C-alpha cells in the first residue's frame, strides 16, 4: 500500500456502514473523503453502543480538529465531500478506497472505482455475502487489490452522515490474513472499530453469511426487529434455513462444523433488543433489498452441488416479491 502523498482514504457509499467505517478511519488519524450521495455532508458521526467514546459520540467533522482532550468531547476530523467522480480529488491519490454500498448497488459505483482505485489504491469491500471479489473483478482497474471485509457492527443510519452502531459478539471488521488484508487492518489501529484478520476467510465469510441469510430476510418479511428471532416457530424456520446454507457452504469448501447452524441461531437470538437488520431498514425506507447477495449464493450453490435448499428458495421468492 502506497504511503507518502497517499495519506487520505475514500469512502464510496456513506450510509450507515460507510459512516461507521469512515469515522473509524478518521478516528485512527486518516483524512477521509466521502464520495457520492445527494446530501451535502459537513461531517460524519457515529454513536457506538449507546455509550460511545468520550461523550458517547465519535465524530468526523468539518473543522479539521481532533478532540479527546480529557473532557469527554467527541473526536473531530476534516472530511471532504465529492458529489461525483468528475470532481477533483485531493492530490496524491487515495491510500484506500472503501466500498460500502449495498451489493446490488456495486455496478452503479463503477465510475468511482475507475476514478479512484488502482494498484496503489486497494478497495476494501464492506458488503454482505461471500462474493466480494467476483463482484468487483470486472469493475476495478487491472492490478487493483480487492480486500473483502465482514462487518460485525450493527449500524443504523440516523441522518445524513450520522449513524448508531452496536457491537455484536465483540468483533468489528474481519479481513483476509494476507499482505493486503493486514495492511488494511493496520489503518484502523487506534479507532473504535477493531479490525482483525482471518487465515481461513472462506469459512469466516460463510459463518457470517449464516447470520445474514437468515436474520435479514426474516426481519424484512415480518417487519420486525431482532426480537422476532426468539419466537419458537420463527426459530424453527431460521434453523432450517441455516442448515441448508451450511450444507452449501461446506460444499463450497467452508469448514463449517455440524453445530454451526445452531450456533448462528444462538448468536441471532442474543442480539441487543431493538436492533434492526440492514434489510429491514431498507424495506422501511422503501429501498431495493439486498436479497440476491445473501440468498443467491445458497440457492445457486445448492443447484450447482446438488444440495436441496427448499427453504432458502422459498424465502428468496418471498423477499424478491417485496416491492419498495
Automatic annotation (TrEMBL):
Residues 200-321 form the Ketopantoate reductase C-terminal domain. Its EC number is 1.1.1.169. One of its GO terms (molecular function) is NADP binding. Pathway: Cofactor biosynthesis; (R)-pantothenate biosynthesis; (R)-pantoate from 3-methyl-2-oxobutanoate: step 2/2. GO terms for cellular component: cytoplasm. Residues 47-93 are annotated as: Disordered. Keywords: NADP, Oxidoreductase, Pantothenate biosynthesis. NCBIfam families: apbA_panE (TIGR00745). Catalyzes the NADPH-dependent reduction of ketopantoate into pantoic acid. Belongs to the ketopantoate reductase family. This is 2-dehydropantoate 2-reductase. It comes from Mangrovactinospora gilvigrisea.
Amino acid at each position: 500500500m502506497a504511503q507518502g502523498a497517499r495519506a487520505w482514504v475514500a469512502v464510496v457509499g456513506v450510509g450507515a456502514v460507510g459512516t461507521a467505517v469512515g469515522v473509524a478511519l478518521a478516528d485512527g488519524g486518516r483524512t477521509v473523503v466521502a464520495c457520492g450521495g445527494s446530501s451535502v455532508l459537513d461531517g460524519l458521526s457515529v454513536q457506538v453502543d449507546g455509550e460511545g467514546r468520550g461523550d458517547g459520540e465519535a465524530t468526523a467533522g468539518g473543522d479539521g480538529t481532533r478532540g479527546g482532550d480529557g473532557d469527554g468531547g467527541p473526536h473531530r476530523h476534516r472530511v471532504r465531500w465529492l458529489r461525483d467522480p468528475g470532481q477533483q480529488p485531493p492530490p496524491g491519490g487515495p491510500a484506500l478506497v472503501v466500498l460500502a454500498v449495498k451489493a446490488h448497488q456495486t455496478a452503479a459505483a463503477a465510475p468511482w472505482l475507475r476514478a479512484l482505485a488502482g494498484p496503489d489504491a486497494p478497495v476494501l469491500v464492506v458488503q454482505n455475502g461471500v462474493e466480494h471479489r467476483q463482484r468487483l473483478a470486472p469493475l476495478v482497474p487491472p492490478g487493483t487489490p480487492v480486500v473483502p471485509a465482514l462487518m460485525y457492527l450493527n449500524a443504523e443510519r440516523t441522518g445524513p452522515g450520522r449513524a448508531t452502531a452496536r457491537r455484536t459478539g465483540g468483533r468489528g471488521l474481519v479481513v483476509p490474513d494476507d499482505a493486503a488484508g493486514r495492511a488494511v487492518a493496520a489503518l484502523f489501529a487506534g479507532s473504535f472499530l477493531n479490525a482483525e484478520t482471518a487465515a481461513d476467510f472462506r469459512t469466516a465469510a460463510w459463518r457470517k453469511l449464516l447470520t445474514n441469510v437468515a436474520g435479514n430476510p426474516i426481519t424484512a418479511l415480518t417487519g420486525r426487529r431482532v426480537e422476532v428471532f426468539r419466537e419458537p416457530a420463527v426459530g424453527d424456520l431460521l434453523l432450517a434455513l441455516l442448515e441448508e446454507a451450511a450444507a452449501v457452504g461446506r460444499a463450497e469448501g467452508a469448514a463449517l462444523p455440524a453445530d454451526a447452524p445452531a450456533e448462528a441461531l444462538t448468536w441471532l437470538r442474543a442480539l441487543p433488543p431493538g436492533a434492526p437488520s440492514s434489510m429491514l431498514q431498507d424495506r422501511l425506507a422503501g429501498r431495493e433489498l439486498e436479497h440476491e447477495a445473501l440468498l443467491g449464493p445458497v440457492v445457486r450453490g445448492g443447484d450447482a452441488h446438488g444440495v436441496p435448499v427448499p427453504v432458502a428458495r422459498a424465502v428468496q421468492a418471498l423477499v424478491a416479491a417485496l416491492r419498495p
